[in-house]
Amino acid sequence: MLKINPGNLLVVVFLALLATSCSNSKHLPGGDSLFKGSKVHIVDNEVAKKNKKALQNDLAAGVRPKTNSKTLGIRLKLTLYNLAGDTKKKKGIRPWLRNRVGEPPVLASSVNLNFNKELMVNYLQNRGYFSASVSARMDTNKKKKATAKFDVATGPLYKINKVYFNNDSSNIAKKIDSEFFKTLLKPDAPYSLALVKGERNRIDAELKELGYFYFKPDYILVIVDSSIGGNKVNMYVKLKKREIPQEAYTAYTTNDIYIYASYKLHGKSEDTSKANDVIIENYNIIDNKKAFKPKIFPDVMIVEKGDQYSLRDHNITLNRLVNMGVFKFVKNRFEPAGDSLLDVFYYLTPYPKKSLRFEIGALTQNDNRAGTEGSISWRNRNAFKGAEELLFKISGGFEAQYSGEVKQPNIYNFGAETDLSFPRFIVPFLNIQTSSQFLPRSIIKLKYNYESESDLLRINSYTASYGYDWKEGPHKEHQFYPINFTYVKTDTLNRDRDFNLLYGNLIFDGIILGPTYEFTYNSQGSIPKKNAYYFDGLIDLSGNLLGLAEKADYKTNPQTLLGSTYAQYIKLQPDFRYYRRLGNSTSLATRIMAGLGIPYGNSSVLPNIKQFWAGGNSDLRGFPSRLLGPGTFKDTANSYIETLGDIKLEFNAEIRQNIYKFLNAAVFYDAGNIWLYNNNPALPGGTFTSNFYKELAADVGFGLRFDFKILILRLDLGIPVRKPWLPENERWVFKQIDFGDPSWRKENMVFNIGIGYPF
């Protein structure tokens, strides 16, 4: 009987799929071939070498139809389509596999070479290659796989010689002429249709800021003269006088502004009545339900009565109304109100005032521990009729060991939190107004957290904070909490047990008092980019001025506040991420995260709730949660006691691949560790030194992500490949991997369940 080592099972499956995929051409209709793609070759030397490859790729990407998709080099969907076979059934695994998961072959006969030639010539002419020509052929090999080959002669690239604006006596033409130095059509720039469209949009945007509400880009004509020779063109920008209506020549001013604060999308006609309005600072507020205080709107609005119409101000106003967080829909319209005047109407549809939300998650560890976590939150979006948001949240969870020779402690946690936020800056003695498209928020937080590890320890923490959260743009966000007060009480239980629980950095009783500041930059938006960046930086301070004033020293001159010791430290935590799209369904995600905590004065280590940990389902996924490190330390006797550190370094990388609609896969690599800032005899090898790079742990793994839109369920299997607690020349453990050994699997394979992506 044939026996397959489980360690080689994935390789066997991969090879089987590869072999099957090679036979895809056997299932094609007679006389036809499988279209495997296109190759574009630029035959002349008019294109600079540095640009030739990119242009060839752009032309090849435009060929239609597209080829069958690939996963790890295999046409997996086509293979599954052929494996399912033809069936007349509408239900069952075969129809589902063929019609829902699978993908029919893209045939060479479906490729129209003449159509694609015309597409390429049109694309090149729009890029300034006016004399481009293309020839094409279809090459088919013995395996019935066809490649479309295109030979492209681009001809010379035409560049802009001079640009003229044909002015006339109208005010609108004078406005365009006065700003024409900003034109995108610069001499010696390559001709581009996209550049021409951009210029028309630029002029339109300029005019929209000058009150020309009814103007459109289509009213601008750009004439290109390529007859001047020397591969140059003259460009003439002019207005289409015969097509421009009279109102487009008029600069408009904002007249009356009406705000319907409780508008229903499908309401009655009286919902848009101007009766019962309340006038506040020239704004007409209509709120028949009296759900909002009228005075909150003037601070939000950027558009004011008597202002010249500005598209920018209008868009900022809409964004600010949305960012109040209480309106589900925000729309507006303009209505002529006499010569050069516009009345403005804003229709605001509120969210339900109160809402209840439930969340639940699960986790598992390789040491036979499993658990769950969940939360219930109640939200009031307009608590005091001033668009304040009041949140009450209760959360809890546990981890329990369901089997195993060595009984490990169960972990329980419970939390309660109250947040109250206001859509404006509330600063004593100051009135700070902003014109950003994002409203700032002032936030009050009260939080309690409880954690218990069976009969080992209990941690109670109480936090009160006041601060501000604001955005300076769509990609930059700031959080500043000048007031942070936390009291932590840690109780150790059953002190008679035969091990030393007091690692030193697990226990903290006292006060944490100091400001925090966090800056986040995220270049990702609603439109996917080829390259995207994310940065989050945190500065966390405690007891600095107080400790310096009292000359605190935890050894010789310990100090207290309100009868309790207080922490004194500086903590920095930068987190940088880089994302790159490798294809339509493949991407690379990387993260570098560092943490530096410097305890001094009144503290020898960071407080336990401020320290770093390593291992877990969003960290180093090949190691149990919070049990890695610090440094080369490894407690084999009490391996279930979490370890913490003052310093952390972590690197993660994932290749993410979409397999089928909601199903995504990933292969990953993680590396990192934690260390102590000061030496602790209870944790030998845990102190940070210049040899830190020799003490990094590493793991590799594979994961599945089920993207259900409302949540992403993540399953990751991690395997350690570098163990820092081993002797220095034995830390890489690739040679020890043995999937067929049950003992090895039990000690090394870590299965993680998580919600959302790890980074």
Tags for this model:
Ubiquitin-like (UB roll); globular; 37% strand; alpha+beta; 11 helices; 5-stranded mixed beta sheet; 17-stranded antiparallel beta sheet; 759 residues
Can you put this structure into words, describing what you see?
The protein has 759 residues and is α+β, with helices and mostly antiparallel strands. Among the domains are: 6-153, no CATH class; 159-249, Ubiquitin-like (UB roll) (Roll), CATH 3.10.20.310; 253-350, Ubiquitin-like (UB roll) (Roll). The protein contains eleven helices and 30 strands. The strands form five sheets. It has a 17-stranded antiparallel sheet that branches. It starts with 8 loop residues before the first helix and ends with a strand. The model is unreliable at 1-17 and 495-500 (pLDDT under 50).
The main pleated sheet reads as: 17 strands, antiparallel
Number of strands: 30
What structural class do helix, strand and pairing data support? alpha+beta
Proportion of residues in β-strands: 35-45%
| Overall helicity | 10-25%
Rounded average pLDDT: 88
For the CA atoms, what is the radius of gyration? 33 Å
Count, helices = 11
Could you outline the blueprint of secondary structure elements for this entry?
Blueprint: H1 9-22, E1 34-42, H2 49-61, H3 76-84, H4 93-101, H5 113-126, E2 133-140, E3 145-153, E4 159-165, H6 171-178, H7 193-208, E5 220-225, E6 232-239, E7 253-260, E8 278-280, E9 283-286, H8 296-300, H9 311-322, E10 327-336, E11 341-350, E12 354-364, E13 369-380, E14 389-401, E15 411-422, E16 441-453, E17 457-471, E18 476-492, E19 510-513, E20 516-522, E21 531-542, H10 544-550, E22 560-561, E23 564-565, E24 569-581, E25 586-599, E26 647-660, E27 663-675, E28 697-707, E29 712-722, H11 742-748, E30 750-755
Helix pairs in contact: 3-4
